[in-house]
Every structure is written in structure tokens, then in C-alpha cells.
Amino acid sequence: MTEQMNDRFLAARKRYIAAQFSQLNNMQQEAVMTTEGPLLLLAGAGSGKTTVLINRIANIMRFGRASDSNEIPDTVDEEDVAFLESLSEEISEHDRWRADSLCALEPALPWSIIAITFTNKAANELKERLSVLLGPEAQDIWAMTFHSACCRILRREIERMGYTRSFTIYDTTDSERIMKDIIKDMGLDDKTFPAKYVLAAISKEKDRMVSAEEMLDRAERSGDIRALHVARAYEKYQTRLKDNNALDFDDIIYVTVQLLLQNEDLRHYYQRKFRYVLVDEYQDTNHMQYLLTSLLAGGYENICVVGDDDQSIYRFRGATIENILNFEKQYRGSRTIRLEQNYRSTGRILDAANAIIAKNQGRKGKTLWTDNAEGDPLYLVTLDNAEEEAKYVAETILSGVSGGRRFADFAVLYRANAQSNAIEQALVKSGVPYRIIGGHRFNDTLEVKDAMAYLRVIQNTDDVVSLRRIINQPKRGIGDTTMDNAAAIASGLGISLYEVLSHAADYPDLSRAANKIAAF
């Protein structure tokens, strides 16, 4: 084709692809059509970032890299160019199929796309909306949380790290139970070294990718006795976990990163597998999550991160705003697109938010705007304490109901569960009916944790924590002394606790409880 015809084709192709996303605003559309290389999407609150992610995935599955490339297939001729130029908004299915075929440039397979988010709720919403847009193919996209993605990799590859694929994942309660035993065995005062404190210190080290051995070496060189005790507890904790064929929440990402760093063939496999890597809420990523996404995107470097530097609030749990602030330095040639149109809030709310956010330090800079109405004025109420605040909330609801509103028209949002107590008491005193959304999670109830412990032991008989939880639940007359004796035998023989219990009658120290253990 001539140069003029090439230009006509590229313009017609871009126009056709853009028309498929005409429901988006200009900046959203640009984000959807920028498919190649590193991309930073600075997405303000209510700017439709999930919509952008979904449509971006739809674009790369339908058209591949066509909207972000000047490459022209050799098979295109004058008739094809004229056909694309003649297309109107309403076209037949046959013409749509032909146009898609002409415009597509290496469409991405669903399993070559990984979209990582922070919560199961966000991941499920992503999957549901992708299924509506793309149909059954969407099920093969890796749309999941950091931990779910790592678990999928580990269930396949973890044997290289000395675990079996039936590994158990310990929650906070399980980890604390192990750490309390370790602190007791080390002869440490549990008030000076509370399990939560030691586990928090270990978590920080894992986020920095510091092993127990490295922490111990550093503590020995520094002469810091407190750090030395924590380092030794870290070492014993990791040994217990591995003996139990178990990982804690930090290990899920920590071990995955280690796996990819230590095994070049696996690293290259996943880098070739994932042609496109998308990460939501990038401002809340910690060091381990940053390393993981960098490793997965290390092949094609088609990484798109979405975040808002003005909404980073999780530094207390390891999130580092530097990940988003330094993205352009890490990825040379990266592009940045700002999504600043807000669809959620009124003008007055945005004006107030912009005025506050402008005073933030260490930010990329953006100004939210909206086509929505100006809305009601904002007002601020200052109260002396939690009780006065709760009383004000109850009175406001009652005033609204007496003015014609329904109780169901009101919602009370609070930052921490502890804040609900004063509000609940005020609502009860005022006769205001309410229900708490959230509260204790289903998986945190004792009966569910017991049932899960049974399933864990069925899957992984090395899981000592779950085994000790259920051995006498419900009551079977198998006490702590019996279990301590069994644990001592297992340790002395170098076999698992489950193996000892399976042959309890063979050991004199367990003979009195042998029948009960056999029944279990």
C-alpha cells in the first residue's frame, strides 16, 4: 500500500476501535486504547477506574495491540481500507466480524491477562462485569487478589520450596497460637514479648524480603538483645510452619516472590505467560507486592497500574506510596493518564475535597471535576466525645424520620468496629431500629473455624495447629497432657504428630487414651 493509504487505514482502524468504546469519556477512552508498555492511571475517587479496567481488558482481547500500534498487516488492500472508512455506527454482524478481523493485531488470550486487586469483593465484581461483557471467555482471565494469584502459583510450584501442594494457610489466630508456644519454649516473658508484637516485627521483615537467617545475622552484629530474641523467634516460627506444611498470610506472597527469584525457568514461564499485567489500588501495595508485580511483568513490560496517590492510607500495614510516585522512574518510557472526571459526587463535595487534597505532600497532582449538580452545602459538626457524637447521630435520624424520611434512608459509617458501641447504645436508647453490616465475619465464628480445621487436617495431616484444635472438639477426653506426650514422642522419633496418634496403642504414654484417639 502507498503511504497515503497506510495513513488512511491507521486512521480508520483507530476510529473503528474508538467507536466500540464511545460510552467512555476522552481520558477513559485513551486509557483503554493505550495497551503497550508501562502505563500509570491516576484515577481519582469516583472516576470509573473499574469501568476502564474492564474495557481495557475487552480491548486487548478483541483487538490486541492494534489501538496502540502503527503496524499494518500485509494482507490489507484498498478495498479493506474503503470498507473500514465506509462503516457507520450501525453495522451488520457480518460487517462487524470483518471489521474486527481487519483491525485486530494479536488479540490477547484470556489466560495471558492477570488483573490483580486487593479484596475478594473487588475481584468478584471484576469477574462478574467481565463475564457480562465478554461471556464465558472471561472465566479464564486471572482476575483475583494478590493472595489468590499467589496461591494458584504455589499450588502448582511450591514443591520446589520444600512444601507439598496440600499446604495449609494459617490465619492470625493460628499464627498467634504457634508464636505463644515458641515464646513459652524460649523462656521469654509474654508481656515483654507479646505474640502480636513479635509477629508484627516478623511481618515487617518479610515485607522487606528479609529471611530469619538474615535478621538473626543483623541482630547478632548489632548486639540488640530484643532484636536477637525476635530473630530467634522468627527462625523457630518459620521452622514450625514448614514442619506443619503451612504458610501464614505474609508467606503466600513472600514464598511466591522467593520462588520466582530463585527459579529462572519458572520466572521466565510466568513472564511469557502473562502478556498483560494490571494492578488495581497500586497506592496501597507494599514492597513484596511491588516485587511480585515487577517480576510477573518482567517479560513484556505491559504493566498497567491504577491508583490514587491521594488515597494511600495503609502505611501502617506496610503500604508505600513511593511505589506509585516512583513508577515513572522504575519504568522508563512509561505513560501517565489522569482520570479526573468524577461521576459519584456533587460539585460542592468535590470543591471541598480538592481544597483539602491540594495540601497533601508527595503527590502527582490532579483536580477532580464533575458534570453533576452543585448539590447541598457541606456543614461541619464538632462534638466533645464519642457519646455526644452518637447522641447527635440518633437525634439526626429521628429528626429526619419525623420529617417524612424512612429509617432505611440512613446509613452510619465508621472507621473501626470499636466505634460502633457508642452508636449502638444511642440508637437503642432512642428506639431507632438498626442492623450492623459486616461485624464478625462468617469465617471467624468458632464453629466455622472448627469445621475448617477438620477439612485442613483431612487435606494436610502435618497441620499440627488444626489437629490440636479438633482432637478434643467435641469433647472426647483427649487432654493437653496426652497431646503433649504425643508431641514429645513425635519430636523424639522425627515423625509427624498425626503418625504417632494413628498408632497410639503402640506407645505406653498414650495407651490410656488409645481407644479415644482411634475413634477420632
Task: Please outline what is shown here.
With 520 residues, the protein is an alpha/beta fold.
Written account of the structure:
The protein is α/β, with parallel strands linked by helices. The model has no long low-confidence stretch (mean pLDDT 92). The relative contact order is 0.09. The protein starts with a helix and ends with a helix. Helix 3 packs across helix 6, helix 10 (212-222) packs antiparallel against helix 11 and helix 18 (386-402) crosses helix 19 (420-430). The chain is built from 24 helices and eight strands. The strands form two sheets. The protein has a six-stranded parallel β-sheet with strand order 3-2-6-7-1-8, sandwiched between helices. A two-stranded parallel ribbon has the order 4-5.
Helix and strand arrangement:
Layout: H1 3-19, H2 26-33, E1 39-43, H3 49-62, H4 78-86, H5 93-103, E2 113-117, H6 120-134, E3 142-145, H7 146-157, E4 168-169, H8 172-185, H9 195-207, H10 212-222, H11 225-243, E5 246-247, H12 249-262, H13 264-273, E6 276-279, H14 287-296, E7 303-307, H15 322-325, H16 327-330, E8 335-339, H17 347-357, H18 386-402, H19 420-430, H20 446-459, H21 464-470, H22 480-493, H23 497-502, H24 514-519
Parallel strand pairs: 1-7, 1-8, 2-3, 2-6, 4-5, 6-7
Give the N-terminus to C-terminus distance in angstroms.
78 Å
pLDDT average, as an integer?
Answer: 92
Large-scale geometry: globular
Radius of gyration: 29 Å
Strand content: 5-15%
Key traits:
520 residues; alpha/beta; 24 helices; 6% strand
